Amino acid sequence: MTTREALxxxxxxxxxxxxxxxxxFGPYGLIGGGAALLVTTLFTDRREDDDG
Length: 52
Description:
elongated
């Protein structure tokens, strides 16, 4: 999987999660979607090592 495909998959999962939360919980679902976006951003930090 390329980096672009991985980012598209992450974006799609965030959109679907936010839509589901909004449908189930109304305005509070948008807060949950924002929290999901924050957690995803925190855990998908990508660093490249400069070994050579």
